[in-house]
Amino acid sequence: MSDSIKKPESNFDLQGSNNAPSYLQKLFEYNAQLLEEQDLETSYSDMFFKYFKVIERSTLCDVDNFDAIRDQNATNYDAWIKRRKDLLKVYINFLRFCNLSPNRFKEPSIELSKGVFDSLKSEYSKNIIVYSKYANTLGSAKGVELHDITIRDGVPCFKLQNFEGRPPIILPLNINVYDRYYIHNPYSDKEAKTYEKLVANPDLTVIYGLYGFSKDEGIDEKIEELKYLKSYIPKSQFFELRGETQKIGEYHVGLIYKPKK
């Protein structure tokens, strides 16, 4: 059964304002409860381990023995997570260098679908609002919202489970209220395609970044694709950095900045 798409009222506020229709308020409360009941911290951890295996050029041969495989890789994985967080700091400093830090903007920006290992939130606590079903991994910080987010036709949307088994509702975020988005390092090729459509949306300002260790699977090719994306999107800018430190080794960073029309 296909998802139904409901257009928000023009004054619909993402934070659940009193202007929102009561049905939608109840639906958001219902979905928050559903997400709270799920073990999404484990889901995020499992997903990030699979991401680690892919970019390390490894495969999960036996999904039925997933926990054992993760235990066998625990030392390497923990070390990779630490290096990854150090690399995130490099990316954050590169945003500052490019004058694209969230602190540059007066109003808060939205970061989509990230968690504790890869969110900008820890650095930009007042200037980033995180919408993610992995929000619980970030603790109880202000500006962290528990939502299942999807991107449809270049528009960020809430994916809301409906009452009584009815089809889910895909509710576009009000881009008249929040029109600036930070996205980086999609977890899959499918997610990368939706990110490209988000960048192409003329009504949004988008900062789309990729960063990785130079030995990561496909990092150079992905950044070349980012450069190609810039070539056909009007007004977009591309920034690139290669470097090496003793702590994290060689790395490669690329990002696109595309202002709204």
Task: Tag the structure with descriptive keywords.
Rossmann fold, 4-stranded mixed sheet, about 260 residues, 11 strands, alpha/beta, single chain, disordered N terminus
Structural notes for this entry:
This protein has helices spanning 22-37, 40-55, 66-72, 74-97, 189-200, 219-231, and strands at residues 4-5, 109-112, 128-132, 144-146, 149-152, 155-160, 169-172, 180-184, 205-213, 237-245, 249-258. With 261 residues, the protein is an alpha/beta fold. The protein has one domain: Rossmann fold (3-Layer(aba) Sandwich), CATH 3.40.50. The strands form 2 sheets. The chain has a 7-stranded mixed β-sheet with strand order 4-3-2-8-9-11-10, sandwiched between helices. A 4-stranded mixed β-sheet has the order 1-7-6-5. A hairpin with an 8-residue loop joins strand 6 and strand 7 (169-172). The longest helix has 24 residues, at 74-97. It is globular and about 55 Å long. The two termini are 36 Å apart.
